[in-house]
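Project standup — Tuesday

K.O.: blocked on the structure for the chain from last sprint. Re-posting the sequence here as requested.
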Amino acid sequence: MNMNHLLRAHAPVSDGNWESIDGEAAERLVVSLGARKIVDFAGPFGWDHSATDLGRVDHVADSPVEGVRARRRRVLPLVETRVDFALSREELLADDRGASDADLDPAGDAALVMAELENTAVFHGWEEVGIQGITQESPHRHIPPTADIEDYRRRVARAVEMLLTCGVDGPYALAVGSRDYTAVTETAEHGGFPLFDHLRKILGGPIIWTPGVRGGVVLSLRGGDFLFESGQDIAVGYDHHDAREVSFYLEQSFNFRVASPEAAVALAPDDE
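H.V.: unblocked you, prediction finished:
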């Protein structure tokens, strides 16, 4: 894959620095890219991959030459996303000397922002770039919140029942934002059968922490329902530097589409 557009060779940093920066970002991405763990992922196809063929056409009403009929093919363009961050040159030098506490946190922070953006687009859409999210496309009524977190079990069971009723097989996963994930795991620490484990038994699949999700989403893991396409996968690039800092960025290109809207049910957040 050609990654010359990232200009990494022009950065005033060592190979060891690049390894550390990439590692810091990857460590945060592995745990926070929740959507990728439960939707179909295709690619990466490279920075020059620009759109996905949707296999459909729009009829063109007029032609500049009489007697000619035309149809325009539909495609879904990829969106490029970028998150900037900067690292101190002193900290980069410390990393080169082998310091175990070199401050590379801005790379991890940028990774979390990128993950939240991706998760939000997948589950709640991004109108400006033409992405319709899972909760937008789902035809099912959102399951309302309750005051008692222990009722989460009933809400998840109801979502699974709704999916089964319309013929959507499992196993199922539950994607939850930070607030719901914390509530579910804290409740598991109380007496009785742990809520977290009970939910997994109902689902037959995982509970995934997914920053950016509002409330929760129960969806099928049967495959073929939710399609994420990657052009350039998330990578670190170099922008510029001065005497004190080196400026970098995280960048990727992707699109997302829902093939089977009925394969997911949203659990509404408290503020909906």
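K.O.: great, moving the ticket to review. Residues 105-124 form the longest helix (20 residues). Residues 102 and 229 are 35 Å apart (CA to CA).
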